[in-house]
């Protein structure tokens, strides 16, 4: 049986707070996940307030989950001395959901200006999975170039695009199916995930 996973989840200032809430709940409920390092940028806090009516940084993860989670550690984006800023800290994967174009640009060009950028840079240099769930449309040439740079460096570009073939009945169901696909990509398939059956 595989060892429990140590996952970093970062949320940045792009629309899509519902994705962040759903993936945090899934990670908290998954017995294969031993530790969640959670970082929300200042811009993400603004989006949480706008989209989910959640305000403030204090106890943000608990507000999203509805209760405390002993395996979760929340970090400020300014804390460059946090555990996930070091390559010696054993992170199994990092997911940025949603990932803003500004965050993508910083990661693609090696500009570790905050903890999210630095933790992502660590994943790239240590050859660990880094999933960038970008959220923007349309893309300009700078966005496309930065996606190419990040992909060439080892990141997976995983756009936050919902599926429709499963006939979702709510935005929550759309978000949940998307995060199931993200988690399956890092080796954490969910037992209730939808699977396409053409027949």
UniProtKB/TrEMBL annotation:
Statement: the UniProt record of this protein carries the keyword Lyase: yes
EC number: 4.1.1.98
Broadest EC class assigned to this enzyme: lyase
Keywords linked to the UniProt accession: Lyase
Organism: Tunturiibacter gelidiferens
Lineage of origin: Bacteria, Pseudomonadati, Acidobacteriota, Terriglobia, Terriglobales
Name listed for the protein in its UniProt record: 4-hydroxy-3-polyprenylbenzoate decarboxylase
């Amino acid at each position: 049986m595989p060892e429990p996973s140590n996952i970093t989840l970062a949320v940045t200032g792009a629309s899509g707070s519902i994705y962040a809430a759903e993936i945090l709940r899934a990670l908290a409920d998954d017995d294969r996940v031993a530790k969640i390092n959670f970082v929300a940028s200042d811009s993400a806090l603004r989006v949480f307030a706008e989209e989910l009516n959640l305000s403030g940084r204090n106890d943000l993860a608990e507000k999203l989950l509805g209760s405390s989670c002993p395996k979760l550690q929340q970090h400020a984006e300014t804390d460059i001395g946090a555990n996930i800023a070091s390559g010696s800290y054993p992170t199994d994967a990092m997911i940025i959901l949603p990932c803003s174009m500004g965050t993508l640009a910083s990661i693609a060009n090696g500009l570790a200006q905050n903890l999210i950028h630095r933790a992502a840079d660590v994943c790239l240099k240590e050859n660990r999975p880094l999933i960038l769930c970008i959220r923007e449309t349309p893309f300009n040439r700078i966005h496309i170039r930065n996606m190419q740079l990040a992909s060439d460096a080892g990141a997976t570009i995983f756009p936050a695009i919902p599926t429709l073939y499963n006939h979702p009945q709510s935005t929550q169901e759309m978000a949940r199916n998307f995060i199931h696909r993200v988690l399956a990509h890092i080796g954490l398939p969910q037992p209730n995930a939808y699977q396409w059956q053409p027949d």
